[in-house]
Structure formats: structure tokens, C-alpha cells
Design a protein that fits this description.
eleven-stranded antiparallel sheet, mainly beta, globular, 375 residues
């Protein structure tokens, strides 16, 4: 029987017939409370009566534009730190084509589609550049960055932070990237990818800053390179700091890079093209509610989508000191006792299709909760 009073954004708990309890705990929020009810996130887009588009259940009340005429419009905005943040659009927007969590505006410029995709931490906005002839038009595209009362701080790598009145980060604009149609390589990474320079300038009205003008400055040499295969995707997006849980991977070949915004985790080693080592760190804040409890069994479950081949390989989990956004390769937390190991290979082909992998972590979690720490 489920125990509703123990439900949270990351946790559900069931009472078992023998008097014990079983918990399902996610690394990040997967549900929200609305009108006294807990609702699982559902990013399926729907058209609303006012002409806008929105996901069925989104943690930050994402609203996406419908069809719009000339002038300035809100393209996609969300709530963060008590403010509405997002991107605006100047000019005509056609009726978006809705598919799951994606809204596609066809031909916002000749040969270029605009896409907004709802995500758990916010949304991603990206352009689909259909052919080489359209590549030169990307630099002419602009969007108004909606900041509300937050301050926007641009970083040297092209990303940026939205900071509240007390200076805390409430949302981020990740580094803008572009990638071509060649797909994934043997290491599960995009075969052809490049960073996109972003020019952000203040827009003032009545003597005060009302937003930021965002212009993309992609590398035209990369876009025109014969090795680039079209269509090409060019992003950025906005992510909200939800303040619950944490996950990130670190890799020796991308030191000093922030991978919190990535949609996947990585673990293991490959010598195919590089001497690459990767580790992933996860923090489950929902465990703190069980401080002092006796743990009878616990498994860490991960969905594996890509392996180097179908040869089963051993991987392991270990308890570490506290982890947060400072984690980088060569700046990692102390590794404490090993939690367990598993031997798997899933996601390479139909012979070893993607699927769940798990590892026993009961002893490590029991040690952590006995000390009333986090894991």
C-alpha cells in the first residue's frame, strides 16, 4: 500500500505486508504537486484556448507560442526564481507542428525550421538548417532573451546564468552547440559537433534593461566544410536549477567542462579514437528522509542506451563524498567504499538492445543512512 504522506517530487514509498517499506527514489524530480494531487511529469504538448502551446505537466509552467503575426512575441517562457524567463521572437511564426514534446515552426527563414522542445529542467530551442544554402542565414537570426527581474551574466564559454536578487543562480543558458546528420560515433558521441559563439547585448527601454538580444555566430567554415552533412542542428536553451538531486559525468578528454546539462551519463573506457575515461556521479537527496533506517535491499537502476559492443563488461558503483556542480575531471570527490558491481552490455545492436542495468547498493546506502548523510 502506498504511503501518500511520504510522496515527494523524487520519492514514492509503499508499506509491505511484513511491516517494512519500499521506496522508489529518482535522482531528480519526476512529479509535482498541483491542487493537492501529485502528478507525474508529462511533456506532451497541447494547444490551449488562448492559442499558446504547453506541456500537460511541466515543473516550470513552460508556455510556447502558437501561430503569431509580425512584431515581438514570447517564443518560450518558464517560471524560475519567481520570474518568467525565456526567449522571445521577432516576426511571423507559422502554426507549430506538435509531436510529443516538440513544437516545430517550419521555414522561419528560407531552409530553416525552428524547434522548441520541453525538457524536465526547462526547454531547448534549436534551428534545423536543412541545406548548405541556408547556413549563411543562421547568423541573421536573433531572439530576445527574457530575463524578468533577474540579472543575466554571460560567461566566457558562451553560456550564461540567470541570477536572482540575492545573487543565486536560478537558471542557466548552456553552451550553444551545432551538430550535423552523421549521428553517433563508436563512443556514443556525435560524430561531428562544434560550439556556437553567442553574442548577447542589452536591450533598453525607458532607461532600464528589458532583456538581452541574442544572436548566434556559428562557424561558417564548419558549416561550409564538405565534411558537414545536412541537416544541421543549432541550439541553445534554458535550464532551471531545480535544487533537488544531482547527476553529471566527467571525462578525461573534456576537462573543465560542465556536463550537468547533458541528457545522458557516461561510464567506462574506450581506446577507439581516444584514450577516453568517463565516470558519472549521482546524488539522491530523497534518501535523507530515511536517516537511521535499516536497509534490507537496494538497487541502483540505470537505462543503458549505448555500449561499445555486445561483449558484457563489468562496471561498479561506489559511495563518495558529497557531489555538486563543482565536480570535474581531476576535481572529484573522495571515493569511499564500493557498493557493488554488475556485468552488462546493452544498446549496441538488436543482439544487445538498450535496457535496464542494475547494481546492488544496499550496504553503501545503509552505511550512509546510519550516519544520516546523503548518497
Amino acid at each position: 500500500m502506498e504511503i501518500p504522506v511520504l510522496t515527494s517530487a523524487t520519492t514514492r514509498v509503499w508499506a509491505q505486508p511484513d511491516g517494512s517499506e519500499t521506496a522508489e527514489i529518482s535522482a531528480g524530480p519526476v512529479r509535482l504537486q498541483r491542487d493537492g494531487r501529485w502528478l507525474d511529469y508529462d511533456f506532451t504538448l497541447e494547444r490551449r484556448a488562448d492559442g499558446t502551446v504547453a506541456p500537460k505537466v511541466h515543473p516550470h509552467d513552460l508556455v510556447i507560442s502558437g501561430k503569431a503575426g509580425a512584431g515581438e512575441h514570447d517564443l518560450a517562457t518558464l517560471s524560475a526564481g519567481g520570474e518568467r524567463l525565456g526567449f522571445g521572437w521577432s516576426g511571423v511564426l507559422p502554426e507549430p507542428v506538435l509531436e510529443g514534446a516538440k513544437a516545430t515552426y517550419p521555414e522561419v527563414a528560407a531552409g530553416i525550421d525552428l524547434v522548441v522542445e520541453a525538457q524536465p529542467t526547462g526547454f531547448e530551442q534549436f534551428f534545423i538548417v536543412k541545406d548548405r544554402a541556408a547556413a549563411a542565414r543562421v547568423a541573421g537570426l536573433r531572439a530576445l532573451l527574457k530575463t524578468g527581474a533577474t540579472s543575466f551574466v554571460a560567461k566566457s564559454d558562451g553560456s550564461g546564468e540567470f541570477r536572482g536578487a540575492r545573487g543565486g543562480v536560478v537558471a542557466r543558458m548552456p553552451v550553444a552547440l551545432m551538430w550535423d546528420a552523421q549521428g553517433l560515433g563508436a563512443r556514443g558521441e556525435r560524430k561531428r559537433e562544434a560550439k556556437v559563439a553567442v553574442d548577447v547585448a542589452e536591450v533598453k527601454a525607458g532607461g532600464r534593461t528589458v532583456g538581452r538580444d541574442v544572436r548566434l555566430a556559428p562557424d561558417l567554415a564548419w558549416l561550409n566544410d564538405p565534411a558537414t552533412r545536412y541537416p544541421v542542428v543549432v541550439d541553445p536553451g534554458i535550464e532551471v536549477d531545480h535544487g533537488v538531486g544531482f547527476d553529471e559525468f566527467v571525462q578525461n578528454t573534456i576537462n573543465l567542462s560542465d556536463n550537468q546539462s547533458k541528457t545522458e551519463l557516461k561510464v567506462g573506457y574506450t581506446n577507439d579514437g581516444c584514450q577516453c575515461y568517463a565516470r558519472s556521479y549521482l546524488r539522491f537527496d530523497g534518501l535523507t528522509a530515511f536517516g537511521g533506517a535499516k536497509i534490507h535491499s537496494a538497487q541502483l537502476n540505470l537505462w543503458q542506451t549505448w555500449s561499445h559492443n555486445c561483449t558484457a563488461t563489468t562496471w561498479k558503483a561506489a559511495r563518495t563524498d558529497h557531489v555538486a556542480g563543482w565536480v570535474q575531471w581531476n576535481n572529484e570527490p573522495a571515493h569511499l567504499e564500493a557498493a557493488g558491481s554488475s556485468t552488462d552490455s546493452k544498446g549496441w545492436s538488436s543482439n544487445c538492445a538498450a535496457g535496464w542495468v542494475d547494481v546492488d547498493v544496499a550496504a553503501a546506502i545503509d552505511d550512509t543512512l546510519s550516519a544520516r548523510g546523503d548518497w
